């Protein structure tokens, strides 16, 4: 089979996102790969923009409008309160848009790429990476060649050659979702699904484990030939409550709430949103990376500037949350807009269920991973979200290709 340029480009993107966090420890320039990928959407949109696509799909249109309003709310707040310098504001706007820009980049790069034609080759690459990660994790349990991050539940949390277990969990989950996009059958893929799930579990990151358990639940429903229905999600509600309750209780009701970065950020975010109702304090002012780099006055104003990880001398934990950032920086209005943005994104993915239930699983798996991680991570603004934007972009590409094919048949 002749290798197309699109296939070669896809393999490069696959390996870059699967290995970026490991490579950038040794080659610093690779840490900018996710930013570069997101920014590619600008020249690609200039060259390939088609207004009819956005106009035709109401979910894409509503998502774009809500994103514009979301940014507008934050910028207005920055102009009113002036808590942050404008270059910090610009950086934070980019971080908030980067995930969605990654989806657009993927769409423009691969909307004409027939992934089904190359799915056997792609699956081979994915399986090699999963097998590599699994073999290294298992051998490390025996030989202890690689350092471990910490100990939980009486076990070592594995990270092999990654910098943190979360990075290994995220890279593995990304590969599982790509395997779903190129799915061929239960017997051929089950062993690699199990290995991938085992890798995530052995990182001992509770949120990643919860996400992979939801993924496995959906996987076995779909591979039995059933179509996903809303009622199938009902058993997940008690599970999600169980996962989220400990985090929620710790952040708002425990004695340690104001002593730990996540708890302090979560609690104070509501006060900021109340005091600056309804627009919030503006971009770069609270619980975001620029708010620590260009130290925001809000931390000292609200009495949490002495909390470990939130100090002027070391603010390394300022971006350890997601929803508190949205609530404080963009207010209750911005929070409502972001929830609506996520709903529009889910509805976009739901369209893919009409094409292939495995595509639906891949797209929804990415959303579930981000929503679960948003309980105690920067989620949608995290660099680890960019591989998931690729997965969602590929599901949208598949829907576009199906619609284009149907229109060609109608017009012929």
Task: Describe the protein's topology.
Elements: H1 5-23, H2 33-39, H3 41-48, H4 51-56, H5 58-81, H6 86-110, H7 119-143, E1 151-152, E2 155-156, H8 165-181, H9 186-202, H10 206-222, H11 230-233, H12 236-252, H13 261-275, H14 289-293, H15 298-301, H16 323-350, H17 357-373, H18 386-411
Antiparallel strand pairs: 1-2
Helix pairs in contact: 1-8, 2-6, 3-6, 5-6, 5-16, 6-18, 7-8, 7-9, 8-9, 8-17, 8-18, 9-10, 10-12, 10-17, 13-16, 16-17, 17-18
Quickly list its features.
single chain; 412 residues; mainly alpha; two-stranded antiparallel ribbon; 18 helices; globular
Task: Describe this entry's structure for a reader.
Strands 1-2 form a two-stranded antiparallel sheet. It has one domain (5-246, 334-411). Helix 1 (5-23) packs antiparallel against helix 8 (165-181). It has 412 residues and is an all-alpha fold. The protein is built from 18 helices and two strands. The two termini are 29 Å apart. Strand 1 (151-152) and strand 2 (155-156) form a beta hairpin.
Spans of at least 5 consecutive residues with low confidence:
none
Task: Please tally the helical runs, counting DSSP H or I stretches of 4 or more residues.
Answer: 18
Number of domains: 1
Q: Give the CA-based shape.
A: globular
Strand adjacency order, main sheet:
1-2
> Secondary-structure element order, as H and E?
HHHHHHHEEHHHHHHHHHHH
- Proportion of strand residues: under 5%
Radius of gyration from CA coordinates: 21 Å
Average per-residue pLDDT, rounded, comes to 87
Helix content: 55-70%
Q: Profile the largest sheet.
A: 2 strands, antiparallel
Q: Which structural category fits the helices and strands?
A: mainly alpha
| Strands, total number | 2
Distance between the termini: 29 Å
């Amino acid at each position: 089979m002749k290798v197309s340029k699109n296939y070669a480009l896809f393999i490069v993107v696959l390996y870059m996102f699967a290995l970026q966090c490991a490579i950038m420890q040794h080659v610093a320039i690779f840490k900018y790969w996710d930013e570069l990928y997101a920014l590619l959407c600008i020249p690609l949109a200039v060259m390939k923009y088609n207004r009819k696509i956005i106009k035709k799909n109401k979910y894409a249109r509503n998502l774009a409008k809500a994103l514009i309003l979301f940014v507008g709310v934050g910028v207005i707040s920055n102009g009113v309160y002036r808590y942050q310098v404008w270059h910090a504001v610009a950086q934070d706007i980019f971080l908030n848009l980067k995930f969605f820009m990654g989806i657009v980049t993927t769409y423009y790069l691969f909307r004409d790429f027939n992934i089904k034609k190359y799915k056997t080759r792609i699956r081979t690459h994915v399986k090699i990476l999963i097998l590599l990660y699994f073999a290294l994790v298992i051998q490390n349990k025996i030989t202890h060649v690689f350092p471990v991050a910490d100990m939980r539940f009486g076990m070592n949390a594995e990270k092999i050659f990654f910098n943190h277990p979360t990075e290994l969990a995220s890279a593995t989950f990304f590969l599982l979702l790509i395997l779903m996009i190129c799915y061929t059958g239960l017997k051929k893929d089950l062993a690699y699904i199990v290995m991938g799930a085992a890798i995530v579990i052995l990182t001992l990151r509770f949120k990643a484990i919860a996400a992979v358990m939801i993924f496995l639940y959906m996987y076995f429903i779909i591979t039995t030939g059933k179509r996903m229905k809303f009622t199938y999600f009902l058993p997940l509600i008690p599970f999600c409550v169980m996962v989220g309750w400990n985090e929620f209780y710790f952040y708002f009701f425990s004695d340690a709430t104001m002593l730990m970065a996540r708890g302090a950020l979560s609690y104070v975010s509501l006060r900021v949103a109340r005091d600056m109702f309804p627009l919030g304090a503006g971009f770069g002012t609270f619980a975001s990376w620029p708010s620590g780099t260009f130290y925001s006055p809000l931390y000292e104003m609200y009495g949490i500037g002495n909390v470990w990880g939130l100090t002027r001398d070391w603010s390394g934990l300022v971006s350890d949350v997601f929803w508190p950032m949205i609530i404080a920086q963009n207010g209750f209005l911005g929070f409502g807009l972001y929830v609506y943005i996520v709903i529009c994104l889910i509805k976009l993915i739901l369209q893919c269920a009409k094409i292939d239930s495995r595509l639906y699983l891949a797209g929804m798996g990415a959303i579930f991973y981000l929503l679960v991680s948003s309980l105690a991570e920067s989620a949608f603004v995290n660099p680890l979200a960019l591989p998931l934007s690729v997965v969602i972009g590929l599901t949208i590409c598949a829907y576009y290709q199906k619609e284009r094919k149907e229109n060609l048949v109608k017009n012929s």
